[in-house]
Design brief:
Largest sheet: none
CATH class of the largest domain: Mainly Alpha
Shape: globular
Number of helices: 16
Number of domains: 3
Strand content: under 5%
Length: about 475
């Protein structure tokens, strides 16, 4: 017999979606503030990327563990703990007196996000019964997530320009406090069914530690390659250690009784292809927003508010394209729509890569922005559906979490590599170019490299995604 619907379910959705909006917003809102943060805390350009990377590495690496903790300990409890940590870390970021404190606070924000995001989504699916209402709730959830990403650039500009860069972090605090104060009244506790006693092995802490350590080592190795050199013992040691730790992680997932990521899922062609495409798209997307914000403010001289407003065409194009993706998939196929979206993304990034040091909004910003927005909007809808196609019902949550992990990990590794490329190109161009042209040369290299990654993603989509998925 079906249980009666929870009378508080729509209030619960509003609360959980608010928290998700905050997490997604925080991934994009900081980009516009980066130049002001660099000036305020006297951070070198090479260190700015860590403000983004620290958040994304912690978020992506610990997402599977966050989902496991929520399922076993209680989703509402882990959600509440996650939003509490996220809010406290936002305070620390907002009052940070130097770059090290800010980067550490950003890592703590990422840990909080890794706890609350999977718990919130699990609470939505457990609150709404399977069928039309759950589909509607998840559609609202997806729209809120897309809206948060799009609103981040605008809010980042308005807050930074009006109240200063610290406000982009402190804005999270009243939202977090409000959510915590009412969560027990509108959200019921739930957890996964289990048999037997709960033990340490159920959480796969070694797996979480190895994947986190491996990603951090690789990102640090990539980040310092510009200053120490690719062949220096420190750089090579970190890269080798990172690869070794990730190899250990794969071994633990293959042999463990309770792996964070069941490798059997990757034997499904759809899951493997979807996650490969999402990882590559994450590289291109995070690099896009990071370098676009820097190009507009450092090269073109835009203020934060102007930079935020200038990215509205991209955000609107993304939202409209995402809305058109589903009917296009029904008429064509998810492979066709995905490939077209990725090619559009690659073309837009290539266009950005040709933007000169004295570019203009009408010639060098609005055109590639619309193209990139259409490409991302068309790509994201089919990627998710491909990555969970053919997955047994018992693994649906794990498969959904895995594709989010792939996006975050791709973004972390990609931004580290692209920032290193940009810094290297800037240093080499400084001898023959003006300072501004040298910086722009570095950004152009990063845009073109991101375009190449999007192009590779389109090839994976064409060759690895089946015709009828």
């Amino acid at each position: 017999m079906d249980r009666p619907p929870d009378p508080r379910r729509w209030k619960a959705l509003a609360l959980l979606a608010t928290a998700e909006f905050m997490v997604v917003l925080d991934a994009s809102i900081v980009n516009i503030a980066l130049p002001d943060i660099g000036n305020g805390l006297h951070l070198a350009a090479a260190h700015l990327a860590w403000i983004i990377t620290a958040y994304v590495v912690a978020f992506g690496a610990l997402l599977p563990l966050g989902g496991r903790l929520a399922d076993l300990l209680g989703r509402r409890m882990v959600f509440t703990a996650g939003i509490g940590l996220f809010s406290a870390a936002s305070v620390a970021a907002g009052i940070a007196s130097n770059g090290a404190v800010l980067i550490g606070a950003r890592a703590l924000q990422g840990i909080g996000a890794a706890l609350l995001a999977p718990a919130a989504l699990s609470l939505v699916t457990s609150t709404f019964q399977e069928g039309r209402e759950r589909t509607r709730a998840l559609s609202i959830w997806g729209a809120v997530a897309a809206g948060g990403a799009a609103a981040g650039v605008l809010f980042g500009g308005l807050l930074t320009g009006g109240l200063g860069w610290r406000s982009v972090f402190l804005i999270n605090v009243p939202i977090g406090v409000a959510v915590i104060s009412v969560v027990r009244r509108v959200v019921s506790e739930s957890r996964a069914e289990r048999t037997g006693h709960l033990g340490v092995a159920d959480f796969d802490l070694l797996g979480a530690a190895s994947v986190t350590g491996g990603l951090v080592a690789i990102v640090v190795g990539l980040s310092q390659a510009t200053t120490r050199g690719w062949t220096s013992p420190a750089t090579l040691g970190l890269l080798v250690a990172g690869v070794a730790l990730l190899t250990i992680f794969v071994g633990l997932q293959a042999s463990g009784s309770h792996p964070l990521i069941p490798l059997r899922l990757l034997k499904l062609r759809t899951v493997a292809a979807g996650n490969a495409v999402m990882l590559l798209t994450g590289i291109a997307m995070l690099g896009l927003f990071y370098f676009l914000s820097l190009y507009e403010q450092i090269v073109l001289g835009y203020g934060p508010i102007t930079a935020g407003l200038s990215q509205l065409p991209l955000a609107l194009a993304l939202i409209l394209a995402a809305g058109m993706a589903a009917p296009l998939i029904a008429r064509l196929s998810d492979r066709v729509v995905l490939t077209a979206g990725l090619l559009g993304l690659a073309a837009g990034l290539t266009w950005f890569g040709t933007a000169p040091a004295h570019g203009s909004f009408l010639v060098d910003i609005i055109g590639p922005s619309v193209l990139v927005g259409i490409g991302l909007g068309m790509a994201f809808v089919p990627i998710t559906s491909i990555a969970v196609a053919g997955v047994p019902a018992r693994d649906a949550g794990v498969a959904g979490g895995l594709v989010n992990t792939s996006q975050q990990i791709g973004g972390a590794l990609g931004l580290a590599a692209l920032a290193t490329l940009a810094n290297s190109r800037t240093h080499s161009a400084a001898a023959t170019h003006t300072a501004l042209s040298a910086v722009n040369s570095g950004y152009s290299s990063a845009f073109l490299a991101a375009a190449a990654v999007a192009g590779v993603a389109s090839l994976v989509a064409v060759t690895a995604v089946g015709r009828h998925h």
